[in-house]
Amino acid sequence: MRNYIYILVMALTTYFIRVIPLTLLRKEIRNRTFRSFLTYVPYVTLAVMTFPAILSITGETWIAWVGFAAAMVLAYNRVSLFVVSLGCCALVLVLQLL
Amino acid sequence: MHREEYLRGMRDGIPVMLGYFVVSVTIGIAARGAHLTAAQATVMSLTNLTSAGQFASFAIIAAGAPYLELMLSQAVINLRYCLMSCALSQKVDREMPFFHRLIMAFGITDEIFGLAVGRKGKLDPWYMYGAMSVAIPGWTLGTLLGILSTGMLPPSILNAMNMALYGMFIAIFMPAARDHKILLPIIFVSMGASAVFQLLPVFDFISSGMKIIILTLVISLAAAVLFPIEEEAGDAGCGDAEAEIEAEAGGKGAARA
């Protein structure tokens, strides 16, 4: 039951984040620092979530490092999301089986 | 007219559905770690539709953390949807009935937003509904399959599936670093700070969810103060955010096509 409350809390929070600007925003956000802050947040939060957690995906850290480096280079070179994701998944799988 | 847009949205949504299906299998596998049941994990995916948010929630739920911590983490991690919502608010017809905004908001994800901003001219909500009607089932069913399959898959495959999820995160934040040189150092500083928070035992009293919140707020604020993004002239609401996300989505779209 508690898990369903957690799920409800999450769903409502995430929906509010998505719905508020779309329904309330009639004027543009003028404050430069605030706009910059909003722009930087997604990149920082995903970077923080990815590293160093990505290093513990396998028992062998070097495999995780290889997968991480491959994903960073491919993504920087604008390889599509699904190719980066699946390509690195396949790479890590193969390295583990060697 | 609306029917055409709806069908077009469905068609464009198919690659998104396939990608979601694969990634959500990993979400389903990770959900097992938070001791969620298959039904709970499936309901979560159907009602939340957020890879990073759901993934972060598992540690928070497993720890039995306070609801407020879960709320804060979701608000911070999903703040990018807030930006996309800003951008969409400029893209829809002002005369459009209000309830459309309520439904469209539910479908704001990196990929669906990417498709929506890629449409020329004003956005017909039915285009988004078309994309949502294929992408959301993909996300939900993948999660169900993932959590049901955990007992059956060998560890090497489970590990590799985890890599797929992180690969997706990286593919969301890295492409923009190519256009905006300042992002690359910010990303590396974020990773370095995160490693320090994770590895030094002094910070053990902070839960993993709170670490994400604190690091994101502090680093983003510092970056905003030190390297404010110049406003482009004549830009309507959330202009640079929109341009940036659009560039990113364009990169994905091009590779996908």
What percent of residues of chain A are in strands?
A: under 5%
Q: How far apart, in Å, are the first and last alpha carbons of chain A?
A: 44 Å
Distance between the termini of chain B: 24 Å
Q: What string gives the helices and strands of chain B in order?
A: HHHHHHHHHHHHH
Helix/strand structural class of chain B: mainly alpha
Write the layout of secondary structure elements.
The complex is a heterodimer of chains A (98) and B (257).
Chain A: H1 2-24, H2 32-50, H3 61-76, H4 81-97
Helix pairs in contact in A: 3-4
Chain B: H1 2-33, H2 38-48, H3 51-62, H4 67-77, H5 79-89, H6 98-106, H7 110-117, H8 125-149, H9 155-173, H10 175-179, H11 183-199, H12 208-226, H13 239-256
Describe, in short, the structure shown.
Chain A has one domain (2-97). Chain A is 77% helix and 0% strand. Chain A has helices at 2-24, 32-50, 61-76, 81-97.
What does this structure look like?
The complex is a heterodimer of chains A (98) and B (257). Chain A is mostly helical and 98 residues long. In chain A, 77% of the residues lie in helices and 0% in strands. In chain A, helix 3 (61-76) runs antiparallel to helix 4 (81-97). With 257 residues, chain B is mainly alpha-helical. Chain B has one domain (2-256). Chain B contains 13 helices and no strands. Chain B has helices at 2-33, 38-48, 51-62, 67-77, 79-89, 98-106, 110-117, 125-149, 155-173, 175-179, 183-199, 208-226, 239-256. In chain B, helix 1 (2-33) packs parallel to helix 3. Residues 233-237 and 239-257 of chain B have low confidence and may be disordered. The chains are: A mainly alpha (98), B mainly alpha (257). Chains A and B meet through helix 1, helix 2, helix 3 and helix 4 of A and helix 1, helix 2, helix 3, helix 4 and helix 5 of B.
Task: Note the main attributes of this structure.
heterodimer; A: mainly alpha; B: 257 residues; mainly alpha; 13 helices; globular
